[in-house]
UniProtKB/TrEMBL annotation:
Active site per UniProt: H19, E96
InterPro entries: His_Pase_superF_clade-1, His_PPase_superfam, PG/BPGM_mutase_AS, PGM_Phosphatase
Residues that, per the record, bind substrate: R18, H19, G20, Q21, T22, D23, W24, N25, R69
One Pfam family here: His_Phos_1
Similarity comment: Belongs to the phosphoglycerate mutase family.
Any one of the GO CC terms: cytosol
Protein name per its UniProtKB record: Phosphoglycerate mutase
One MF annotation (Gene Ontology) recorded for this entry: phosphatase activity
SUPFAM superfamilies associated with the record: Phosphoglycerate mutase-like (SSF53254)
CDD domains for the chain: HP_PGM_like (cd07067)
Amino acid sequence: MAPASPHGEHFAEVVLVRHGQTDWNVSRIVQGRMDQELNETGRQQAAMVARRLSEETKPAAVYSSDLKRAFQTAQTIAAHCGVSDSDLVIDLALTERHMGLFQGWTIDDAKRSEAFKAFARGGRDQEIPGGGESLDQLFERCVPRLNAIAEKHKGERVVIVSHEAVIEEICKHADPTISVGMKIPNTSISVVHVSGSDGRWILEKFGDAGHLTGDGFPQSTFGGVGVSA
């Protein structure tokens, strides 16, 4: 059987899927680690991305964040793609960035706050007030884990269901020219080819939501400064 990645048998094809929509996405509330479930639109989105993936190369496994909105999406994908329960894996390294003080705030209220203005002036090592993660901490959590997953699945396709900030950080590592202002819609697909043994990453696709029809996607990010809803 030919390897899933066109770059060779040492690469894994990693399909990154953002979770489906929640009510807090619609209301533009910062979720972070707060555990919201999919709304009806989110469940429909999950079914649509699952159908798309079921028509492509079967994934060897589906990995998911522990948060409900991601795991519900992952369960739908696994069911449509014929992935067994034993190959549907919850991975804490894929959970959303901890948004600290801003969790539960609307994006607009957070951006108006003095705490956010001070945070936004910082660099990648700047932690979010109230116990949130810096971008460096987010990187150290998710990028090495992706290398490990890729090493385990060399020559295979895997699906990872995660969150906007995590997917953006992974894609920026693969291609530093990616703009942080680019949108990653709910259930959009990004594809990275990863050689875990030598650390080579190739970004093939970013934020592709061609399987969805119509509009109604939630607004994304805090204006490109690394804080997501």
